[in-house]
Amino acid sequence: MISTIRSLLRGLPAMLVVAALAFTLPAAVVTVGAQESEQPERKTRKTPAMREKTYKQLSEAQVAAEADNFQGAVAILNKLRGDDSLNSYEKAQMYNFYAFIYYSQDRYNDAVRAYENVLAQPDLPEALENGTIYSLAQLYFQSENYQKSIEYMERWFRVANNPGPDPYVIVAQAYYQLKDYRRALPNIETAMRIARQQGKPVKENWLLLQRLFYYELNDYAKSEQVLKELIRLYPKKVYYTQLSATYHELNDDKKQLAALELAHLQGMLTQGREILNLAQLYVANGVPYKGATILQEAVDNNVVEIKESNLRLLSQSWFMAGEYEKAIPPLQRAAQISNDGDLYIRLAQSYLNLEKHADAVEALRAGLQKGGVKRPGDAQVMLGMSLYELDRLDQARSAFTVAANYEGSARTARQWINHIGNEQTRRAELARALN
Question: According to the CATH classification, is domain 270-337 in 1.10.2020.10?
């Protein structure tokens, strides 16, 4: 059960990190120009103008790329690159378009080199420079160079004006990949704070990352708070089960049960192992009747596998709830499929509690015949006592005689043998007196 709990707590899907990212395709040259005109620069840079012939060639490359003719687009750019008269701005836009094409073909390393060439040009417009830095941060993440991704994003933060939450998410995820959870945590929390300030929803994946970071830092109290927020915003079974597992780590058995019980009341627990876990928690928290009730229903509907351990739990739950009659059928089934006779001995004890001595005799004999009984001497004593209650004294004496051969039960067995002898003598004398 402990291993299951830890897997629940860790339970972040492997694809979550990638899925949570919203990578932006590098913009084509005309789009970049539009973005530049919309963003005011902090300081004026003297940037060379793009000449008409260069613009036409880049436009031709863009038309080819939009038609998925990347080979043709690259050919146009290669021809343009051979023009020694290109100024720094024209070269920057050319390399920017190379990056766009390479990214479209999933050639991330080539796209990175193209963007580095953009930044190598002097007198770049700030919007183009900053956008390139941001794209490099994304691409380095995509290429699994997480340290570089962080470095470029930190560089971008120094020049960005009121950044949104997404860049901080990327940094948090990069630190996560580097297993640096202490640095990852403030970044994901900054992303969530900005989203709330901007009136945007806090994304589910962000909360999942925050919960994971707290878990890796062994801060289960904070992990509990995040899971409550996940349940409030994105109510799913997995968050109830993880919350229950978190309460286990916090040694709060009552809340561990309550979290799982809430999921059950909403019809979320549909798998056998979930019902078993809930039933065990009910028993552990002193509510065996509820545990037995839900487990019995699950067994009857074939939700829980019919196997020895599950049937034993069901029987134990009914027994602890004081429902001795209901405890017997599952224990009978468990004894039948068990590899040894011990469960038949336990079944016999249940019969004895109900003073069903004939049934107890049958169960005891079945268990002893099956073999593997851990304390056969005690089982023989129980058999002798049951036979005695049925007034089958000779058979009882035989059982006690066998029990006398076992060290742990010999003393009790001899006492019973003497008692039976005395009883038989008393009866014989009474019979003679009556004759």
Answer: no
